[in-house]
Q: What sequence folds into this?
């Protein structure tokens, strides 16, 4: 099992690498919770600790919403 501090260090090292790879493919990586709604993706960008995960957990109780992610989103045109 990897310690939480080691996972945080790994994530800190990987985020810039992932961001560069995504940008090179004409896309962007944003810190956001994402849901689907009637066939469309909706991103809820916000800083950590502001309630993104709690918000989408509440949306998941509604039948028209679907879970996509609660931390990072990759978007393109």
A:
């Amino acid at each position: 099992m990897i310690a939480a501090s080691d996972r945080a260090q790994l994530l800190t090292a990987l985020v810039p690498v992932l961001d560069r790879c995504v940008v090179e493919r004409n896309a962007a990586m944003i810190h956001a919770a994402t849901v689907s709604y009637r066939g469309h993706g909706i991103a809820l960008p916000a800083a950590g600790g502001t309630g993104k995960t709690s918000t989408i957990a509440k949306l998941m109780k509604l039948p028209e919403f679907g879970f996509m992610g609660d931390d990072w989103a990759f978007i393109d045109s």
